[in-house]
Design brief:
By secondary structure, the chain is an alpha+beta fold. The protein is built from one helix and six strands. A five-stranded mixed β-barrel has the order 1-2-3-5-4. The longest helix has 26 residues, at 11-36. It is flat and about 100 Å long. Residues 129-187 are annotated as: Disordered. Residues 137-147 have a biased composition (Gly residues). Residues 166-187 have a biased composition (Low complexity).
Length: 187
């Protein structure tokens, strides 16, 4: 055998093969994520009047006009009332809706506002906004610290302040008295 036939592949060839495998793995991962991601389709639901919303409702749909915008939260108004809707992170840039726009929102209404999962614009475009529940930080916030939920599911009330000290007569300070010692003559 000659030197040329027993020669090992160069490092450059190994580098090219490794880069090709990494690119193939990245493309395969992207395809897998796209194929397994849930589609942005709304569950069929009849819009309800905002005044009929109750905490703890399962998935609800409301329809109305955007009355006000506060960062990632909007106020939607219909003929029966108004509701605060949290659009989540997707609503932070302020480009999803504009004041006066007719929208349909589907999500979960709890504790006085709605956590939106889907937003349908006047043009019929469906935007998936995220999970319908809030962040899962445990019973008392991040790391489980903080007050525990009370008996009705809300946060427990803060502890009462300590009792006031009993009123007493003002203390009178006794000033120390100094006594003078007379020097004695030495004998």
């Amino acid at each position: 055998m000659t030197e040329e036939t027993t020669r090992r592949p160069s490092r450059r060839k190994f580098g090219l093969i490794a880069a090709a495998l990494v690119a193939l793995g990245g493309a395969g991962g992207a395809i897998t994520v796209a194929a397994t991601r849930p589609s942005a389709t709304m569950a069929p639901a009849v819009p309800v009047a905002i005044s009929a919303l109750k905490s703890g409702d399962s998935v609800v749909t409301i329809r109305g006009r955007v009355d006000q915008i506060y960062g990632n939260k909007i106020v939607i108004a219909d003929a029966s009332g108004r509701a605060l809707v949290d659009l989540g992170r997707e609503g932070e840039d302020g480009t999803l809706v504009s004041a006066g726009q007719a929208v349909t929102v589907q999500g979960r209404f709890d504790r006085g506002f709605m956590r939106a999962a889907f937003l349908v614009g006047a043009d019929g475009k469906v935007t998936a906004l995220g999970p319908m529940h809030g962040p899962d930080h445990g019973p008392g916030g991040p790391g489980g610290k903080g007050p525990r939920p009370g008996p009705d599911g809300d946060r427990a009330a803060p502890p009462p302040p300590p009792p006031a000290a009993p009123a007493s007569a003002p203390a009178t300070a006794v000033a120390p008295t100094a006594t003078a010692v007379a020097p004695t003559a030495a004998k």
